[in-house]
Write a structure and sequence with these properties.
Blueprint (H helix, E strand, L loop, with lengths): L1 E5 L3 H14 L4 E6 L2 H11 L3 E5 L7 H8 L8 E6 L4 H8 L3 E4 L4 H18 L9 H20 L12 E6 L2 E6 L3 E6 L4 E5 L3 E4 L3 H4 L8 E5 L2 E4 L3 E6 L5 E5 L5 E4 L11
Parallel strand pairs: 1-2, 1-3, 3-4, 4-5
Antiparallel strand pairs: 6-7, 8-9, 8-12, 9-10, 11-12, 13-14, 14-15
Helix pairs in contact: 1-5, 2-3, 3-6
């Protein structure tokens, strides 16, 4: 059996590896990841039997990474989420096909999880294809969708902070205040987040993960780990030959990609 461990904190990865060595000594840790996107890449290249995903990670969260992992053609393993404070997820996990561990991971609880994971893996070993029936796959996808939506809705925290109304940003050598409702979309790279309106493009240093909780989630949706779009600016959503969705912006030439983690937002009812 082989596993990938994903957590943005190195010490927590080491702690989990140590505990796993105690309760599952024949498990090989074949890869480690520091964020959700790296976890997807590791799973795709290494094809482990089980992946331990921290829920709160940069780039993509563990929940978002899981949505992409379960769509990989080679995936037939098990997912275990590791969480410190996403208590809302516990009840959902208990009713679903996924497993979870609360930090700090206790040896007794980890041993229970290991036994469940080993039993499910052993049960599917004779099968060459994915074990889930279409109904099971739909249930798993629905559970992940529910958890991703719940996490996004909790992004504002418990302070009920009002949504942002203006953004202070730089356009050339000038600092301006931009009304949030005029923003078509936000796109980020490693250093800056681009703020695009119909009339101008400006830059801010606030990353997408910090910007999203401050926006009205009835008006702005995250559609990619690096993109937030204003729903009122969407002209159309199209799908290419590979099934990838693209968002066309009204009155603007740029086309925005929708990642698989957020494809459910535009799924036909």
């Amino acid at each position: 059996m082989r596993a990938v461990v994903a957590d943005d904190e190195r010490l927590l990865r080491e702690q989990l590896k140590t505990r796993l060595a105690e309760v599952w000594p024949d498990l090989e840790i074949c890869g480690e990841a520091r964020d959700g996107q790296e976890a997807i890449d590791k799973v795709e290249s290494l094809n482990p039997d089980v992946v331990f995903l921290d829920i709160r990670m940069p780039a993509l969260t563990g929940l978002e990474a899981a949505r992409e992992i379960v769509t990989l053609p080679s995936w037939s393993g098990e997912i275990v989420f590791v969480t410190a404070y996403d208590e809302y997820a516990v009840a959902a996990f208990e009713q679903g096909a996924l497993d979870y561990l609360l930090k700090p991971v206790e040896p007794e609880r980890l041993a229970q999880t290991v036994q469940r994971v080993k039993a499910r893996l052993q049960a599917r070993r004779p099968l060459a294809a994915k074990p889930e029936s279409p109904a099971d796959e739909a249930a798993l996808d629905a559970l992940l969708e529910k958890l991703v939506s719940a996490q996004q809705s909790l992004g504002r925290g418990s302070t009920h902070e009002p949504a942002m109304r203006f953004i202070q940003c730089t356009a050339g050598s000038t600092t301006k205040l931009i009304d949030v409702k005029d923003v078509l979309f936000f796109r980020s790279d490693e250093k800056y987040t681009r703020v695009q309106t119909r009339d101008q493009e400006a830059l801010i240093r606030t990353p997408i993960r910090e910007l999203l909780p401050r926006l009205d989630n009835q008006q702005f949706w995250q559609i990619h780990r690096s993109t937030i779009v204003n729903l009122s600016a969407i002209a159309a959503v199209t799908r290419d030959d590979t099934g990838r969705q693209r968002v066309q912006i009204s009155g603007h030439p740029e086309v925005l990609e929708v990642s698989r983690s957020f494809a459910h937002l535009f799924r036909a009812s």
